[in-house]
Amino acid sequence: MDKHRIPAADLGISRRLFLHGSAVMLGGGLLARPLLAATRGCQATAGDILGPYYRFGVPFQTRLAGPEEPGERLILTGTVYSSDCRSPVPGALIEVWQANSAGLYDTQKPGNFTDSGTFHLRGMLYTDEQGQYRIETVMPGRYPIPPNLPGLEKYAGMTRPAHIHFRVMESLHVPLTMQLYFKGDPFIAKDPWAGDKPANAIALEQDGKLRRGVFDFVLARGF
């Protein structure tokens, strides 16, 4: 008998120990770690904070701003991709919310998650069979961070760059929360959230009286 050969029984024990150890690692948080794409140069979209003005129960709609809404009209389009940056993700749920052109949200009460009042400049939609989405809205305004926000006290008074919030979810992928910014905004560089995410800022094109932007999301695969 080869003295270096591991007995079959021991192999079975070792395999079980390995699987048990793997399960422990998964239970310890590995499940929440994004799987980066194997494709060279492909990266999952960087996440961001949820922010204090998220609200539950928004309606399904792709037109966030009606014709009477003040501000410069904006159309955003794009595709939700899986972690290989090639495979579109149909049926992904997208939540979107933003401030109006004056920098005000429909609720100025931070943490007002369950307010049943009227929703404004908020919506939900599913990507189509090609993983694509389209949103009609207005350019959001900048605003100063209000005082006494839990966890954000040290940023009080700092002006945030214009941005639109997104949450993107699909059952086989890690949920993504992010903020979309716009290139050329002078407040991006010193913003504690936007400053280190240059890929989350897009250029806009003028098309008559409206502006157009394209942003593709890349979701990390779950296990």
Helix count equals 1
Largest sheet features: 5 strands, mixed
What do we call the CATH homologous superfamily of the largest domain? Aromatic compound dioxygenase
The assigned CATH architecture of the largest domain is Sandwich
Total domain count = 2
* Total beta-strand segments: 12
Taken from the alpha-carbon principal axes, the silhouette is globular
CATH topology of the largest domain: Protocatechuate 3,4-Dioxygenase, subunit A
Q: What radius of gyration results from the CA coordinates?
A: 22 Å
Considering DSSP H and I runs of 4 or more, what fraction of the residues is helical? Answer: under 10%
Instruction: Calculate the terminal CA-CA distance, rounded to whole Å.
Output: 41 Å
CATH class of the largest domain: Mainly Beta
Could you give the order of the helices and strands? HEEEEEEEEEEEE
What is the arithmetic mean of pLDDT?
83
Strand content: 25-35%
Structural class of the secondary structure composition?
A: mainly beta
Which stretches are low in confidence, meaning pLDDT under 50 for 5 or more residues running?
Answer: 1-40
